[in-house]
Amino acid sequence: MDKLRKKTTSKIQILSLPSKKYLFRRNSLLFLLFLFLFFILWTSALYPSRDIETASVRLSGEAKGDALFFVAMDQLRCGEQINAENFFIKASNLASPEFRREARYRLGLLYFDQAQKASAAGKNGEQARALLHKLVSLSAGEKIDPDLRLLTMINEARSSLGLWMDILASMGQTRPHDADPASCQSLSLTWALAQYETGQEASSLLQSFVSNDGELTGERLTAIINSGGPLHLSRDRAIQAIADLLLALNGDSRKEVLSTFLIAIRDAGATIAGTPLYLSAVRSCGYGSDAGLLFDHTLELLPFVEHVPERKAALLEAAGFLARRAGQYDDAFSLFDEAVDSATEVTSFDSLHMQRMVWYRFDSLVHADPQSAASAIPQLLGNMVDPRYFDDTLDSLLDELLRQREWPLIDTIARSFGRDLPAASASRYYYLAARGRQLALLPEDGMQEALFRRILDLPPSGTTARYYRILAASALERFPDEEGTDYAFFYPAAEARDEAVQGEPAFPCCMRVVRGLLDHGFSLEAEKELSRLESCGFLPSRGLIIDTVKGLSREGHHLEAIRRFDRFANERGISGNEELRILYPRPFRAYVHEVTEREGLEENLFYALVREESHFTPDIYSHVGAVGLSQLMPATARDVAGRMGLKIPSNEDLHDPRLNLSIGAWYLAHLAGRTDNISEALFAYNGGLTRLRRWRSSNSDLPDDLFAETIPFAETQYYGRKLLVSTTIYRYLYRADSPEGPLWPVDTFFPKR
Length: 753
Prior knowledge:
By secondary structure, the chain is mostly helical. The chain has helices spanning 2-16, 20-46, 49-56, 61-77, 81-94, 97-121, 125-138, 148-161, 164-169, 181-197, 203-208, 219-227, 237-248, 254-268, 276-285, 288-301, 309-325, 329-343, 351-368, 370-375, 377-382, 391-403, 407-416, 423-438, 448-457, 463-476, 508-519, 523-535, 542-554, 558-572, 577-583, 589-599, 603-614, 634-644, 657-673, 678-687, 689-698, 704-710, 714-733, 746-749.
């Protein structure tokens, strides 16, 4: 009995003790539970909208729908398109009217993108039609303000499937007060194309090819035409020629297009001669030898329109344009001169069209005879509608006069300018006239200081105006230290009335969407919506702009923040240093400080370089292939990296901020060691060391600041101006970090003045 009891007891003890296998399973489950809880906490921190989703459970009605819209936006940002679609569907049924409308638009974007991919594949027409049906259903149902953005997508999807009658049936759709011009234009183009394809009307298609100022609508139209398949326009040779021309913008042979167009000219004769359609076609295909051929045919058409002033002026403008493009500037000036005279009899030519012809006339004269152009300045001043329109051609004239060392003419023009000229052109002429006196290139007549002061009287709008403003202040020794300057020296000061909300009451629903996007961390989407509203006449308040650009900067979208606020600041001014810091921020501070200290560069100057090169966007590419924050060409970066003992396996490695900044700083320091001053190093950074030496050798007699005026590359010349301005503003804003350095960098940039 005792033996049995002991045996039973031992079995019970064995059963009551946990086995190793059991312990392993239990610990594994606990570990997995811990990982799951950690994942929940981590994703909640990573994706704030999960908090919104959790909170939405406790909400009801429209508030719940609005919250689900932002959950969908976050899912879309994370690449979870299926989840985003489900949440957008819920929001489109539950949210308040403005967010319901926005949810349907965002949902439409998803369907449209999928439909375009299915249509482009050409293998699944049923899938494309099913997605189109989903798109159409979004615009049905509850009666809310029609969203033309959604209707635009629907009609483009229909055109890709050849559903022209469905497009025509949608033409009765009313346009809301906040319809954006891009949607309106796209709708009018697809409607016109549908009319043509169904044989109802051809002339509307022709008129839809051009905008109000006679320009081809370009990529937008070619995309619509291409999505609708090849056009068969043989019923009207003029239409055929223009359609072929537009298709050629996507890469077809220009020669073939021109031959087709010339046939159309012969067949149509006076029918299209001198029309905006003809003028825009000439602008698009009149290049090289083709320009000369078209020029002859254009002159042949003049007798057909002799007694129609409007068409005569337009045809003369077309001929002048072709002559100018062929390099026949004397002929171009005569033709534009006659075109301007003919246009004075035409009431249908608006002021902007007239200004364009006046610009072409003057610019042709600048190229043909700079001295005569200088004498024509008073006449030009009397014909300006918007003086800023003439900045570039006045600059070209000054470049030519400076190249010929025509200092008396430069001085004559500078003294003839009134106060209604653009600050950029006027300040450059004033500065050179004053410097000519300083260097005894012009007789001293007591005007030197007055000319410098005129620059300071001009508004500081734009980089060029700020550049000469800084040079003039330095020449006058107006600002020997920081006491005499403030933010209003660099940008116009905002007026007190600008603080008022000027346009928001007219767009209350849209404003809730913008504010909601900003509040939930979607500043890039908010900025796009703000731009759309501005195109419809909305004038945002200063507070809304500040909130938008701060959000963009906070989310790392420095490019969009700086560009958006720079436009705003030049037009409506700034109200303090805090706003100026939005334009001149210091991201990647630790890296910039590290590389500049190592290479012996000024931190403010290197910040200026990175700002102007990339606007602090690490993964940016330029049109020529330069990469990253300091915009290095891959070949140059690899060469420099090799000298530094580094390796760059791929171009994507240059997106790394620390690596890119390290290589850029080393390269700038290297150039500084091979040039005479920092401005020459910066010019070499942009234009190349070999070019810099060639430019300098041909203008060795000029001091540094005047040499900068003679650089033949407009991009490099402007680059130097941007860097001086940015370095000055960075020194001003962050002088507390380097109080021992000079506030004004003019002598650093141009030591031999």
